[in-house]
Each structure stands twice: as C-alpha cells, then as structure tokens.
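Bench log. Compound arrived from synthesis this morning; before running ITC I wanted a structural hypothesis for how flavin-adenine dinucleotide sits in the protein. Inputs:
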Amino acid sequence: METGSPDTMQLSFEFSAPRSEQAKENLIGTYRKLANLNPDYVSVTYGAGGSTKDGTVEAVIALAEQGAKVAPHLSFGRDSEETIATLLHTYKNAGINRLVALRGDVPSGIAGSSHLAHASDLVAFIRRETQQHFHIAVAAYPEVHPESTSVKSDLDHFKLKMDAGADSAISQYFYNADAYFRFLDNCAAMGISTSVVPGIMPITNLTGLIRFSNNCGADIPRWLIKHLEQYASDVQALRAFGEEIVTSLCERLLEGGAPGLHFYTLNNSRASTRICRNLGL
Ligand code: FAD
C-alpha cells in the first residue's frame, strides 16, 4: 500500500449545487478562498430530479472559467440516455475531464421514481458515449450503503462499478478510520486496487450532522456525539472540538496510506481550510 503524505496526496473539495444566482456567487467566493490550498480538483453535487440540475451545470462552467479543475457529479435520475449524452458533450466541450458518477438519492429530487439506474449503468454509459475522455470516480461506503443487505453484496456492487470502467472512488464520510481500512482490505481481497479517497465531513453543526448522517448511513460514534452535545450551546467550542477530531482522523488516514482527502465543504471554506492548515497542506 502506498503511503499517503501531505506532499503527494490528492486534495479535493466538494460543493453543493447552488439553487440561486446569489448562492452561485457565494460558491465562487468559497472556491477562491479554497484555491489557496491548491486542490487537485473541486466537485459539484447533482440533484438528478430537481432544481439543482441546472445549478450544477452553471456552477461547473463558472468554476471552470475561474480556472478550477472541476468534476461534476452526475446521475441518470429519470433522464433519457440522450439527455445525459448531451450533458456529457457539454462538459467535454467545456474542457471538463473528470466526473463523479452516482445513482443519486430519492430525497435529492427524484421523487416518484420507481427505479434508479445503478451507478455502474451510468459508468458503462459514459464509457460507451465518451470512451476514455473522462476520469470517472464513483462512491464507496466503508460503513456499508444503507440499502445494502450485506457487506458482501455492497462490495460486489462496488466491484461492478470498477468493472464497468470507473477509475477511482470517493468514500462516504465516516468518523471511524478502521471502517475505511477494513474496506480497503476487503477490496484488496477481491482484487480491487482502485484508489479510494476518504470523504471528510468537518464538524460544525451537531443537529445538521446527525440529520445528514441518519439519511446517508454514516455512523457518529456515541462517544463523539456525547462530547459534541457538551458544546450544544457554544458553537465556537463545538467547532474547535470538531476541528481537533477531524484533523486527527485525517492524520490517521494519511499515515495509514489514504491516497488523499475529499472534503465535503457544504460551500463553506473555513472548517476545511483550518483542518488542511493543521495538516500542513
Ligand atoms: P450505487 O453504486 O448504484 O449503489 C446503490 C445501492 O444499490 C447500494 O446499496 C448498492 O449495493 C446497490 N446496487 C448497486 N448495483 C446493484 C445491482 N446491480 N443490483 C442490485 N443492487 C445494486 N447523491 C446525489 O443525489 N447527488 C450527488 O451529487 C451525490 N454525491 C455524492 C458523492 C459522494 C462521494 C458520495 C459517497 C455520495 C454522493 N451522493 C450523491 C449520494 C449517493 O447518490 C447515494 O449514496 C445513493 O444512495 C447511492 O449512490 P451510488 O452511486 O453509490 O449508487
């Protein structure tokens, strides 16, 4: 296993797709601050069925115009292959060469859809449509995707994405480093040697974090919740404690060989910047 280090690791920041012109301007401002950390790329989420679809494309183009290397997230949702093909060519023509291919989630706006195409179907479609043009990253779940019936089936489905042509993966966030290392071991045992960059969620808001974690199946360990609850009425103290915890997590991940860090910024530069600075990035 390669050893991750601040000198060689891949750094990326994820933004949520803006829903208004003002939100887009704010996002660009956040990007400008994070650009000081020289990220390898930034990514923009995609709500396959809802209003953020156009917001993703607009933000991606605006960020590219700022000189950012951008990876749009993409899902089929209920769109036709033709619609997705058009989007792929829009991105290709805009000089984009990296994508994050996902199935997407019902709460993100695909209400009423009875069937969501698996991410592996999208990866295969992107390869058919644009061959090797895009670097395709997919999602990985060290703590197991909430809909999966077993660890094994989750890994089998992860392998399907790799076999369909994915190049790398970004993990769901977690606060238990052992889950990530176990996931890598399981992948290695299945012959999957793809780079899996851990997703990092800074801790800035306890209520929001608990709600979000319940939805996506990320575990917040009891001891961590108990400590965070102590700071429920003191947001500065909560952020300082969160920063310490997440910095330690990142250190452990990099020491253990993680190839990089992918920060879920929630369109805010402060927490990610402070953690990166703590890590000497
Ligand atoms: P898949 O890989 O398709 O897996 C979904 C579930 O189906 C899993 O339980 C899997 O085991 C199972 N499965 C897969 N293939 C098969 C098969 N052939 N047969 C049976 N079961 C199968 N959501 C958004 O809406 N927009 C975003 O921009 C977004 N960005 C994300 C970025 C990252 C880094 C991560 C980790 C998640 C992101 N998500 C986003 C959330 C993601 O869409 C959800 O977690 C979703 O529920 C699953 O997406 P997936 O791509 O992992 O799906």
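What the model suggests: Residues 45-47, 73, 75, 100, 102-105, 108, 118-120, 139, 145, 147-148, 153-154, 157, 160-161, 170, 172, 199 surround flavin-adenine dinucleotide (CB under 6 Å). The chain has one domain: 10-278.
ITC booked for Thursday regardless.
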